[in-house]
Automatic annotation (TrEMBL):
InterPro entries: HAMP_dom, HATPase_C_sf, HATPase_dom, His_kinase_dom, HisK_dim/P_dom, HisK_dim/P_sf, HssS/ArlS-like, Sig_transdc_His_kin-like_C. Its main location: membrane. It comes from Enterococcus hermanniensis. It is a multi-pass membrane protein. This is histidine kinase. Coiled coil: none annotated. Its EC number is 2.7.13.3. It catalyses: ATP + protein L-histidine = ADP + protein N-phospho-L-histidine. It is found in: Cell membrane. The keyword Cytoplasm does not apply.
Length: 354
């Protein structure tokens, strides 16, 4: 007001113009020109008022929606992770609701994964403790008999020490399998890839098992139409896989008299099948074969030494090579089928039914 007053005092022409405008407005207050202008100006300002009121109402409604969303979020944060914000909105608030629900879903999934990991660790400790305690109890028991002099002859001493020795080897095998299992499950496991002939590798493995096969009256045969199959892989780890599969066929292939190792090439992958004609594995057990410590027949597995880690180790090694393994069983054959890419960094394609 001070600046405007000074401007009027310093500019007489402006003062006269304002005075004349006031007189013109007063003289035309009742004229048609004024009323025609009023008919335009008044609705114009009414529309502006309505728009402002609508804008304020929409803004207040959005604020109420935002407060409601915040209350729902606090409810979820109090531990109600199975609850989701149910109402649907439009615009940016809809994106906010979807983001919150997605965040809750991912949080619940992370919590479930953490619980599964903790449960898995507890099961691992329980199983390892049980499998170590059983042979350890036998070792302590038989050595205690020798320590207390509770034997009748040197032959009985040899019997006790032989049992203790075998139990100690069983414990050693378990510790080695645990070490191997934990090693291949690490995210940064080195894979020393070289080029090798898969046919030659498996024929050499079959020859290594020839003596044991002869003792058990089992034939170990390699069947292939390929004279050689050159591929990339870590031969040391792959030998561990096939050793486990053949050893399992000897141990658990009840009434088997043949172990066949088939090799074939299909496009850019090698398919290796290790199968035996022993007792059929129940359908419900096939999906659990690769779980650690799982054994199909617990009563039989107590008589036959084994850690239950062999197939879990095999599966992890095959995964490290970018392949996959699965099992099939019927009255004729129990087969373990391995698909391996021929070359390093080759993308694997897993069928829908496996």
């Amino acid at each position: 007001m001070v600046l405007f007053s000074q401007m009027l005092n310093n500019s007489p022409d402006l003062s006269d113009a304002i005075y004349r405008s006031k007189n013109i407005f007063a003289n035309n207050l009742g004229s048609d020109i004024f009323w025609s202008g009023r008919n335009f100006v008044i609705p114009f300002f009414l529309i502006i008022d309505v728009l402002i009121i609508c804008w304020r109402l929409i803004r207040r409604y959005r604020q109420m929606q935002l407060r409601h969303i915040i209350n729902e979020l606090h409810y979820i944060a109090n531990g109600n992770y199975d609850y989701r914000i149910p109402f649907e909105l439009r615009g940016d608030l809809s994106k906010v609701v979807d983001s919150i629900n997605g965040l809750v879903d991912s949080t619940v999934a992370a919590i479930e994964d953490e619980r599964a990991i903790e449960k898995s660790k507890d099961e691992l400790i329980t199983n390892v403790s049980h499998d170590i305690r059983t042979p350890l109890t036998s070792i302590i028991g038989y050595l205690g008999l020798i320590e207390d002099g509770q034997y009748q002859s040197p032959d009985e001493i040899l019997k006790y020490t032989s049992i203790a020795y075998n139990k100690a080897k069983q414990m050693k095998s378990l510790v080695e399998d645990l070490f191997e299992y934990s090693k291949v499950r690490q995210p940064s496991v080195p894979v020393n890839t070289i080029s090798f002939d898969m046919v030659q590798l498996l024929e050499q493995l079959a020859a290594d098992f020839e003596l044991e096969a002869r003792k058990k009256n089992i034939q170990v045969l390699v069947e292939t139409q390929e004279p050689q199959l050159i591929m990339d892989g870590d031969t040391e780890k792959l030998v561990r896989v096939f050793n486990n599969l053949i050893t399992n066929a000897f141990k658990y292939g009840t009434d088997a008299d043949k172990i066949l190792i088939g090799i074939e090439k299909s496009k850019n992958e090698a398919i290796v099948t290790v199968k035996n004609n022993g007792k059929e594995i129940p359908r419900e057990a096939l999906d659990q074969l690769f779980d650690r410590f799982y054994r199909v027949d617990e009563s039989r597995s107590q008589e036959i030494s084994g850690t239950g880690l062999g197939l879990a180790i095999a599966q992890n090694i095959i995964n490290l090579h970018g392949g996959y393994i699965y099992a099939q069983s019927n009255e004729e054959w129990t087969s373990f089928i391995i698909h391996l890419p021929l070359y390093k960094n080759q993308v694997k394609t897993l069928p829908d039914n496996h």
